């Protein structure tokens, strides 16, 4: 949908045990209050009995204000066991991008934001190196540099956390950030921190995945964007993509081809999250395409 | 969904001018009568103002019989301007496959039907040659052979039409059938006759598309499945796919690679049609994936 | 190249330590004896220093007979340390296809052989079940059925081995054969036995890969054709391909989508092997595309 | 290959009527003078009888200097009818990028140059608008702005031509440049000017291809990089790629998805050209992958 049309909408993500009448109840709620559904994607998993839905409606002339909407959803939640998240098209999420020294994913995110592909404010680029300060400056985004040593690691993370709070950040994106975050930090940002791993997970978990891929002689390489959890490279997958390689591609060439995958997969995952198309269900995601 | 679970469902395809309350009205209808929606995919085109929906519900314990359901939908239609088609999961569509002398698409359809991928009965293989009689026989499908000459062409088509009626055919699939059908025949089967064209339409309309593709030096070839209309290769597209080619591929090799595309694209299009995921809107299709 | 043109050619695969003059020596050999090179693909791996080449030349008016050619290559081998294999376009490899009860890969191989896509003779379909006897019969290929119990397993394998010898088999294809072959058998067929694994290796090694893929929530599934070694699912990879999946796809649907991948990946790998485009180098393959 | 190893090499592209001994003659030439072939890709088109080859050799310790190499190739040319181009790994081609007001392709080229993916000097960004001056400045590339009116169009083109000469430009890249160049200009840069067209050519030639694609209801969109000729959108195709679209994608969304294709396809085509992997043969290209 066009950004303009998008502004005056509400998006509702729902998951719960299936029961009859869920769609009717929620669509009646929209209709009774004068709203118009513009996009609805609902699916019930036969095996698990899980009801999954994304519902977007126009707020043009809607009878309830936002507090009223949320009160009503709270009531449905108690009555029907809904788990839900609600977002408004006019609320631009605030994003912090964490980087180290490689630029390609950062450029991609900043450029897409500039082009209007990503509806968000990138409020800060956060790094343990100063290398990419110029990239942030070029796109008029504040750059926060905290050098990290084994001794300062925890203190820096605490400082980063405070800045994220001050900046009112909604989403943290690890755009090839080469530091492992503490379980406490990860837990604090559960479901709101996205990483790009440079392999087709679950293949080649851990370090140097392109070297691993070359050694194994795979014919296709990949990249995976996922929510970060305490288990490294094990969080819910949001998006993946792949590219063919041949025997003419040495490791250096895999890295080069991989860069293209990484930046695209990460940007697509961020976009899907920002458009509230991603519902986390256990260690899986439901992506409403 | 599993075939078993699929049996006792109704699928509704709807298109109409958008207005508020359409989802509420239809989901209430299902709910009030004791049905349970298992899959709902709705989208309103912002530019055209067109409301498009696919709704599948379980008929387990549904209060209305089929006549009752249709009466109610008829009422909605008058009241709200709905255009709708309704199908039941326990009604296996009856398909006739038209072929000439090439086997790959025919095998693919027959094999997938046998594996349970295509929920239909293939009631006849119809051909202007006897070449593929053995293939039909191997899969226990009746084979109808009508030799065609310029003089007999119309008479044969009339005979084919009568047989399709006798057999109660719902869908005609042209699986590399090398005869042009008359406008009257095409009109009679509007929206129920699928062809495979061996190019990425609208590129390379007409004869010998692989030769055209080689001459033009494209780096990717394609195949396109579409509903047949009176304008050759111009009907609504259902599905397309592509494959990379290199300078080592001569025309013969493009033909070989193309065969793989043709059979897959045709089978996917037939499957989408059989599952009632395809809604025709003007000269475009809406495919609920 | 067209099958006809292909007939009167020799194909040479070479790997060795790189040194200057290798291409000159081998192309001179062809030229001096009146041959004409029609396809040459050579690459030296910078890191490993490995020289890799596929050379196809026309035997039209070639001065040496086959014994002469091989003597000369033997001489190069002693002198330059070449490892080589040589095949002739008019020699159709003899293939045995091992199957259990699933038909899709078997149909694909038999159909492609019939269409002329696979230049080989399929000399036997070998199975531990009688289920697919009719498929082999339809394509006029002998079917060998040996029921297997834990007690007879070794004896059956010995009998199979004898039959492969009697039939002069060059290549064994495991087309969803659900028995683990003994190390001795695998060793005997090293580099001449191809398996299809229903995942994107090295992800989801072992049993029920589609269930594993669903549990992990991957967004793309794959299939992998590889040479069989004593380590299950660890042999050199020949070909892989992938397909997107969504949350609407349950395990059953992954299996269905996977079937398409399996048959195509296996058939492509067999074709690459038959055209002598695959060179095994340690646990990797070099595929001359 | 790594950039370092690449420096001290020569790359030869050859096309001519096929005859026996061509590979032997050229590889002997390299060998006799102490060179080492590191990559050779040769193919003879069976139907046209065209011999096509890319040969890369290491100049480490090569007996001839560059003038000597070229004299020898000239001699082969007279004797054998070779058409050839020769380039050296240590010679960085000089590129001018023409843009109007859209930034995505320009960023992609500049970023890849910075990352070392494109081995070239981008000597100027040339534009009929000043919009993208800041992008060029960020990457330290001179920006040349010439406003164009119908009256000044020819004079501007003449001035651009003079600047390209002064700057010693080897390749002109039209990165969404929204002006039609004169036949004289195009002719002057024949084979050295690359354009990106935002459709899967030959589908949707001309203006507003994404609108055309939406109207036609295609399920896949594409982008095409090609050498520019006097016939608009008709020059030899270098590279193409595609992306799936659905009914949820309006024209604006096709444009967004298309941007990703455009920048990647253009950058890949430029890279292929810079690595001298592209041989123009009539209105087709041979791309040595």
Q: Would you spell out the secondary-structure blueprint of this structure?
A:
The structure is a homotetramer of 289-residue chains.
Chain A: H1 3-7, E1 9-17, H2 22-32, E2 36-45, E3 50-58, H3 66-80, E4 83-88, E5 94-99, H4 104-115, E6 121-127, H5 133-138, E7 143-145, H6 153-166, E8 171-174, H7 183-188, E9 193-197, H8 209-216, E10 220-227, E11 237-244, H9 251-274, E12 278-281, E13 284-287
Parallel strand pairs in A: 5-6, 5-8, 6-7, 8-9
Antiparallel strand pairs in A: 1-3, 1-4, 2-3, 9-10, 10-11, 12-13
Protein architecture, described:
Four copies of one chain form a homotetramer. Chain A is 35% helix and 29% strand. Chain A is α/β, with parallel strands linked by helices and 289 residues long. The first copy, chain A, has two domains: 86 residues, ACT domain (Alpha-Beta Plaits), CATH 3.30.70.260; 194 residues, Rossmann fold (3-Layer(aba) Sandwich). In chain A, the strands form three sheets. A seven-stranded mixed sheet of chain A has the order 7-6-5-8-9-10-11. In chain A, α4 runs parallel beside α9. Chains in contact: A-B, A-C, A-D, B-C, B-D, C-D. β2 of chain C pairs antiparallel with β2 of chain D.
Briefly characterize the structure.
The structure is a homotetramer of 289-residue chains. Chain A is 35% helix and 29% strand. With 289 residues, chain A is an alpha/beta fold.
């Amino acid at each position: 949908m066009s950004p303009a049309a998008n502004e005056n909408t509400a998006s509702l993500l729902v998951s719960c045990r299936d029961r009859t009448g869920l769609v009717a109840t929620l669509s009646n709620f929209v209709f009774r209050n004068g709203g118009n559904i513009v996009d609805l994607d609902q699916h019930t998993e036969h095996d698990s009995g899980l009801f999954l839905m994304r519902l977007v409606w126009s707020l043009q002339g809607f009878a309830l204000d936002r507090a009223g909407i949320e009160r009503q959803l709270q009531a449905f939640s108690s009555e029907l066991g809904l788990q839900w998240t609600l977002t408004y098209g006019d609320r631009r999420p605030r994003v912090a991008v964490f980087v180290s020294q490689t630029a390609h994913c950062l450029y991609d995110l900043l450029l897409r934001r500039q082009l209007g592909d990503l509806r968000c404010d990138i409020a800060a680029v956060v790094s343990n190196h100063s290398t990419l300060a110029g990239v942030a400056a070029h796109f008029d985004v504040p750059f926060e540099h905290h050098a990290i040593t084994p001794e300062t690691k925890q203190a820096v993370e605490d400082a980063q956390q405070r800045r994220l709070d001050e900046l009112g950040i909604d989403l943290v994106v690890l755009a090839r950030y080469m530091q492992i975050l503490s379980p406490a930090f990860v837990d604090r940002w559960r479901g709101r921190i996205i990483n790009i791993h440079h392999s087709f997970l679950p293949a080649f978990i851990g370090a140097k995945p392109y070297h691993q891929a070359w050694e194994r002689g795979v014919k296709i390489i990949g990249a995976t964007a996922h929510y970060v959890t305490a288990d490294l490279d094990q969080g819910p997958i949001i998006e993946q993509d792949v590219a063919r390689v041949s025997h003419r591609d040495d490791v250096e060439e895999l890295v080069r081809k991989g860069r293209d995958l990484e930046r695209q997969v990460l940007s697509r995952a961020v976009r899907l999250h920002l458009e509230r198309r991603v519902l986390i269900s256990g260690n899986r995601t439901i992506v409403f395409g």
